[in-house]
């Protein structure tokens, strides 16, 4: 169970860091830049802890897939990014892939 908590922390940290990346304006603003650096540092640290018990391919698929979907939603809700029907379908397919990997794959420890 602990590996899933570590992976969740890695995903949330990556989402926070990526969200702050735009506000950093090319690392020219101090506080958003520090959030980016801290967020990615935390994300990679907890990602490395997750890799102790879950295979790297599985971890990366879940981490990147969930991160992509959450970032797209954050950008839509908070940054006014538009999501058309093909974008929403693509995001649903990413989410479905993560669910299939977690629920049906023997490569994921349960």
SSE map:
Elements (H helix, E strand, L loop, with lengths): L1 H22 L6 H21 L5 H23 L6 H20 L6
Task: Describe it.
Helices cover 78% and strands 0% of the residues. With 110 residues, it is mainly alpha-helical. It has one domain (2-104). α1 runs antiparallel to α2 (30-50), α1 packs across α3 (56-78) and α3 (56-78) packs antiparallel against α4. The longest helix has 23 residues, at 56-78.
Let me know the largest β-sheet.
Answer: none
Shape: flat
What is the total domain count?
A: 1
Oligomer: single chain
What is the overall number of helices?
A: 4
Query: How many β-strand runs?
Result: 0
Query: Percent range for helical residues?
Result: over 70%
Alpha-beta content class: mainly alpha
Distance between the termini: 8 Å
Radius of gyration: 15 Å
Mean pLDDT: 93
Beta-strand level of the residues, as a percent range? under 5%
Q: Which segments are poorly predicted (pLDDT under 50) over 5 or more consecutive residues?
A: none
Order of helices and strands: HHHH
Structure described in brief:
It contains four helices and no strands.
List keywords for this structure.
110 residues; mainly alpha; 4 helices; flat
């Amino acid at each position: 169970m602990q590996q899933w908590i570590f992976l969740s922390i890695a995903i949330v940290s990556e989402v926070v860091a990526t969200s702050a990346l735009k506000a950093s304006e090319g690392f020219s603003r101090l506080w958003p830049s520090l959030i980016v650096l801290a967020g990615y540092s935390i994300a990679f640290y907890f990602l490395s802890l997750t890799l102790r018990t879950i295979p790297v391919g599985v971890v990366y698929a879940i981490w990147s897939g969930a991160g992509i979907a959450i970032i797209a939603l954050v950008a839509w809700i908070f940054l006014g990014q538009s999501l058309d029907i093909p974008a929403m379908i693509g995001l649903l397919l990413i989410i479905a892939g993560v669910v299939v990997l977690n629920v049906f794959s023997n490569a994921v420890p349960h």
